[in-house]
Design a protein that fits this description.
Elements: H1 15-18, E1 32-45, H2 46-49, E2 59-71, E3 77-80, H3 88-91, H4 94-102, E4 107-108, H5 112-118, E5 128-130, H6 136-139, E6 149-152, H7 163-170, E7 175-176, E8 185-187, E9 190-195, E10 202-206, E11 215-222, E12 228-232, E13 257-258, E14 270-271, H8 276-290, E15 295-298, H9 303-309, H10 325-328
Parallel strand pairs: 3-5, 5-6, 6-7, 12-15
Antiparallel strand pairs: 1-2, 1-4, 2-3, 8-9, 9-10, 10-11, 11-12, 13-14
């Protein structure tokens, strides 16, 4: 069996997450490589994403991580999320661009397709794009990926979603993952998962709340009998300390609504999530995975990991990636620390 023993030692672990049902993670020899890519950056205000906010005036610069995954048995490459489209200032409406620039302080590093080309990967040969959800900072620019299967939940490709026009332009029919279907199985702390390759190396996981059909991905990076995994989770959590497994951090919760500082003072607050209760449940289940000694969780806006990985040619694409994260000690702490912020 793969290890299902949580990380132990001081400080005390949050008992509420350890009480969750947990199935041993799937055994097998099939593995993948997974490498982070940064194509864009945003700024997040702490009180928008964390409650209670210890530093209400604080904000932090964060990436919109993209992950390049290669299935070793077949050589097929996947991308989990696409960051922000490089041409957003002309692709979106003028009012929308003002919000992205003034509230989120959006910055493009480069187009994901061009980053792949520089690293020796032909975007046209990417097998699939796995979208965590439909929001603008995850759906990127799909035009270079002409041979890719577009994969995600139903709402991700709905008519009102950011992706819909791009999908029409490519003339593609997305592959919809129905997390209520007969092929869905529980995996780890999650109730609904889909075995993408059928060999346990990539599981698409239903983590609803931030959006209706939000999807994480559990990737096996080293084989049994001591298999290790990377769980990439999109916007399951917007602040790292929300996934801290220490009992002392159980007070921190997601922020359900926030006031848009660009709106009128009497404007109603904006919902941060499709369903805050579902989002809390998905966070709790992801925390349970984080408590595992053989699982490393990485969300889209991990400013802490970005701070230490940027410029690291071994970790960042096209480097070796996160395959030996446990051996190399890449799994970091999630204790709240405002001194880690960069703006």
């Amino acid at each position: 069996m793969a290890s299902s023993t949580p990380v132990t030692g001081a400080p005390e672990l949050d008992a509420s997450i350890l009480a969750l049902p947990f199935l041993p993670l799937p055994e097998g020899d099939a593995t993948c490589t997974i490498s982070p890519i940064i194509n864009s950056l945003v700024s997040l205000k702490e009180p928008i994403v964390l409650y209670p906010s210890p530093n209400p005036q604080a904000s932090f610069r964060a990436p919109s991580f993209v992950f390049h995954i290669v299935h070793k048995p077949t050589g097929k490459s996947l991308l989990y999320d696409l960051g922000i489209r490089w041409d957003y200032e002309t692709a979106f409406s003028e009012d929308y661009v003002k919000v992205l620039n003034n509230l989120w302080k959006t910055k493009i590093v480069d187009d994901v397709g061009k980053i792949l080309e520089k690293g020796g990967v032909d975007p046209a040969k990417v097998h699939a794009l796995l979208f965590s959800h439909e929001h603008w900072d995850h759906t990127g620019f799909i035009a270079p990926f002409t041979g890719a299967e577009l994969t995600g939940g139903p709402q991700t490709f709905a008519a009102e979603a950011n992706l819909s026009e791009q999908v029409k332009a490519l003339g593609k029919t997305p592959r919809i993952i129905d997390f209520s279907g007969a092929s869905i199985q529980p995996v780890g702390a999650f109730e609904r998962g889909f075995d993408y390759f059928g060999d346990g190396s990539v599981w698409l996981i239903h983590t609803p709340g931030h959006t209706k059909d939000h999807m994480s991905a559990l990737v096996r990076v080293t084989p049994s009998p001591e298999a290790t995994y990377v769980l990439v989770g999109g916007d399951t959590a917007h602040h790292p300390c929300l996934l801290c497994t220490h009992a002392s951090h159980s007070q921190y919760q997601l922020r359900a609504t926030f006031r848009n500082p660009l709106a009128a003072e009497d404007a109603p607050e904006v919902a941060m999530h499709f369903d805050a209760d579902l989002a809390r449940d998905s966070i709790k289940r992801t925390k349970r995975m984080e408590a595992e000694g053989n699982v490393m969780c990485v969300m889209a806006h991990e400013y802490g990991y970005w701070k230490y990985w940027r410029g690291n040619e071994e970790v960042m694409f096209p480097g070796f990636g996160l395959g030996e994260w446990k051996k190399r000690g890449l799994k970091g702490t999630r204790v709240y620390d405002v001194t880690e912020y960069e703006e």
